[in-house]
Amino acid sequence: MADWGPVVIAVVLFVLLSPGLLFQLPGKNRVVEFGKMQTSGVSILVHTIIFFGLITIFLIAIGVHINTG
Q1: What are the tens digits of pLDDT across the range 7-46?
Q2: What does the domain layout of the chain look like in residue ranges?
Q3: Which DSSP helix (H) or strand (E) runs through 18?
Q4: What is d(CA 13, CA 22) in angstroms, rounded to the nearest whole number?
Q5: From CA 66, how far away is CA 6, in angstroms rounded?
Q6: Largest Cα–Cα separation, the chain
Q7: Are strands 67-68 and 23-24 parallel, antiparallel or unpaired?
Q8: Closest Cα partner for 12 from 66, 51, 46?
Q9: CB-based contact 26:32 (threshold 8 Å)
């Protein structure tokens, strides 16, 4: 049996937290911008910290597992 939980959670969070795709925090003109598709170094850093925090919560604290087979 394979555990697909970490893979699914990581892919979903990566897509949702890609800077500029859905939202960008901090934006160039405002604190939060939606759908701009432009990023900055600070925005990448903020989204990386959010990604690390959420993946730690889902995989270590909650322990999400999706077993197949």
Answers
A1: 999 999 999 999 888 889 888 888 988 988 888 899 999 9
A2: 2-68
A3: none
A4: 12
A5: 8
A6: 49
A7: unpaired
A8: 51
A9: yes
